[in-house]
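In this supplementary section we document a worked example of the pipeline. Step one takes a protein sequence of length 297 as its only input; no multiple sequence alignment statistics are reported here. Step two produces a three-dimensional model, which step three serialises into structure tokens for compact storage. The input and output of this example are shown verbatim.
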Amino acid sequence: MNYVLYHSGKLPNHINDCISNIKNIDKKSNIYLCSDNPSHFNGVISVTSKEVISSQTKELIKKEIYKGTNYESNPLWQASLIRIFILRDFVGKFELNDIIHFDNDVLVYVEGDNLKNLFSSNQTNITRTKTNVLVFGYSYFKNFQILDNLCNEIYQTILQEIKKDKWKKDPKNEMRLLGEVYKNKTHLFNILDSYPKKNSEYIFDPAGYGQIIGGSHYRPRRLFPKRFYRVGSNDNRKRYLPRGGWLDNSYEITDKFLFDRSKIKFKKNRPILINKSGEFKIVNLHIHSKELKKYKV
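The serialised model returned by step three reads:
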């Protein structure tokens, strides 16, 4: 497997934990990091984005699609979108197959080769938090062509969306743009299971399980044991008081998780979901609190 990570701007400390966990879990894999500036991690092939960037990606950047919107002040939204195109450009440049990609605040706990029977070789394999909100909690692409097809669909979707009057007031981030492509071209996607079915062995975390474990970005878990978490639509808990994890009640896993009285536990340093049907291995945790070090293998 080839793990390809991307980051725009100064590299955050937690990317070290993301990388070291891949090394511990998937020792046979190759790890690549594409970033704005040169980086140096042992055992990681590092490349700058300017070495791989395509003409289409440059054209998208020039369009400044978030200028004049409420996303303009936060470069995260532009970077999150551009990374899909840079990922495509990188994979094409290095002629890679069997590509795994996820956000840099994700920890993996299962070797990629063990999951091959869950992946489709001719579709984009990806997680989602809601029906039409796709996120890079975990994704797999068999080859460049699938990534290229996805980028071309996103690009055409962007050209249509930015023409709409409501774009300035309600722009779409990369998750919603992916969702638009999914709505119109569902056959291009294989949605990775986030909640177990009867015969499941593995499930993937788009965001919810990592937030139950670690809390949310601005309100990480503090002092409370891992079994404690709150459920709601807005995490407005006091920032400087003891608090548990968080589960957004809009996520598609939430109703099933609560109905089954499911629990997340660690077994031999690996996360599992337990409900009335049994135990299920969690492939990854999307740690929105950025405190990955606490949950590494």
